[in-house]
Amino acid sequence: MFSPGRYFDEVIGQARRSPPPPTPASTHDSHGHDSFRTDPASDVSSMQKPFMRIPYTGPLPPPIIIPRTANTPSGAVSALHAFLSAPPSPHLRHPPAPDGSSQTVLLTGAGISVASGLADYRGAAGTYTLNKTYRPIYYNEFISSHEARKRYWARSFLGWTNLHRARPNAGHMAVKRLGEMGTIQSVITQNVDSFHPLAHPALPTLELHGYLRTLVCINCHTPLPRSTFQASLAALNPTWSTFLSTLLSSGALTTENPSERLAKGLKTNPDGDVDLPSAPYPTFRYPACPACLQNPPLLPSGARATVTVDPDGAWSPSSTAGILKPAVVMFGESIAPGVKTAAEHAIDAASRILVVGTSLATYSAWRLVKRATERGMPIAIVNLGGVRGEEAFFKKDMDAGKGGEAEAEAEDGVRCSERADTLLPLLVKRMGGVMSGGVGVEDEKGGGARVGGVSALGRME
Q1: Catalytic site residue from 81, 209, 221, 345
Q2: Among this protein's residues, is 209 annotated catalytic?
Q3: Contact 3, 265 (CB under 8 A)
Q4: Residue 353's pLDDT band (boundaries 50, 70, 90)?
Q5: Are 152 and 159 in contact (CB under 8 A)?
Q6: For the CA atoms of 190, 193, 194, 199, what is the dihedral angle to 10 degrees?
Q7: Nearest one of 165, 196, 202, 195 to 181, comparing CA atoms
Q8: Structure pTM?
C-alpha cells in the first residue's frame, strides 16, 4: 500500500541531509546599491483592529431545539418555512424595508461545504474533532517566518487540487433558489471556497474571510491567480509535484472520507490544508511576487525594498518584500474595514437572519449574530452540534413555555440540528420552489461559469 511517510523517507527525505544553497552575502536594490536584510515583518503594519478572525476554543453547548417540533427534518422545515414567511417582527429596533417586506440575510460557515468533500472544523468528522493537535497558522507567524511559509505552502500545494476540483452542493443550489424566490436577499459567508458566488452569482455575497482563488502580495498588494501560483510551486518543487501525482493516483486525496484519508497517512484540514507529519517541509520553495521582483516597492521607511530569488526563481530570505499570501483573512488578522462595514450594513438592512453550517466559533461571525440580536431581529440557526453562545440568542424562546406561557412561535426563532445539504432543498420544495440543475462548471471544451471575473476553476479572467 502507498505510504506517504515511506515516500518522503526514500525520496524527499534525502534533501534533509543536503546542505542548503548558499545565500548571497549582500544583495542589491533596484538601483544597484548594497542593502542590509531586515525582517519583512518589520515592514508590515501590525496595528491591531478590533475585529479579527480569532477562533473560540471553549467547549460548545449541546444544540438547543426550538421549537420542540424542529427535532426532525420535516419539523425543522416547517419551522423554517414559518420563520421565513413571517412579516417583520414588531420587536425590530430599526424600521423594516420601505415596502414593509421582510429582508433575510444568510450567514454561512464550513458546514454548508462539507457535502462538497471539504473538511469543517467542529463537525462529527471535523478537524478539531479528529485532529486534536491541529493548529491553524496565524497571520503574524506567516508574515514573519520563512520556515512557516514553507510549511504552509507545502501543505496547501498538496491540498489545493481537491479544493480546486470540488463544486457547490445541493445546499448552495438551494440558497440560489431561495434567492430567486425572493426569500433571501443577501449572503455573508465565512467560507473561502468561492462556492456561494459560483452557485448564485446574481445573489449578493460578501466573503467575510476572503477567498483562496487568488493570492495577494503583502507588500505591493498586487493579486495573483492561484492557478498561476500553483504552477510555479510545481515547477520549483518537482519532487513534491511527483509526490502529489502519486497521491492523486492512489486515491488518497480524491476520497471524501476523512477516515480513509487518515488511513493513507493524511490529515486533511479546512481551507485546502493537508498535513503529512513526516514531510520535510524545509525543502519546499515558493516564488516571489512577480510585480515586486520587477519593480521593488518602497518600504514604509521610504527605502526601496530588496527582492531576490535563487537561480530557479524561488523567494530568497535576503528579500525585504515580495511575499505572497492567500487572499484570505488568516487567524489573528484583522478584517478589512470595508468588509467589516459591508457586513454590518447587510445585517442592518435585514429584518431577520438565517445562520447555516457554523458554530459561530469565530468572533468575526459571532459578533454579527450578536448585532442582529441587539437589533431585535429574529434568528434561525441550522447547524449540526452546538453553537457558541446560542443560549443568549434564544433566551426569549427558551423562557417561553415556563410559568404556564405558550411555547414561542417559530417565526420568533428557530434552532435545529440538521445537515444543510438535505434540509435546505426540502425547504425550497416546502416553500413552493423547484430545485434547478447543477452548477455550470468548466467542461472538456474549456467553457465555464464565472465568479466575478474568476472562472469556475479559480482562474482570474
Answers
A1: 209
A2: yes
A3: yes
A4: very high
A5: no
A6: -100
A7: 202
A8: 0.79
